[in-house]
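hey can u check if this looks right to u? its 73 residues, i copy pasted from the old doc so theres a chance i mangled smth
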Amino acid sequence: MKHRDIEYTLVQGIGRHIWKWSVVLDGSPSATGQAMTKAEAVSEAERAIDRALALKKIRLVPPQAEGSGKGTS
């Protein structure tokens, strides 16, 4: 499955009420977990992806040329 172009997997465990999820970032499993329901597992995996992407956000600041100031004509 995919969320925000990041792949994650869901697998039903041996027990009826166990769902395992894992998120793959940069080619290696980055986060894993278990949940009681499939919907809960999907939600946890997508939250893990959102957290990982939030950490990678870069705030872009426009460069200012040296010696140039505001109000030059």
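The domain at 2-53 is CATH 3.30.160 (Double Stranded RNA Binding Domain).
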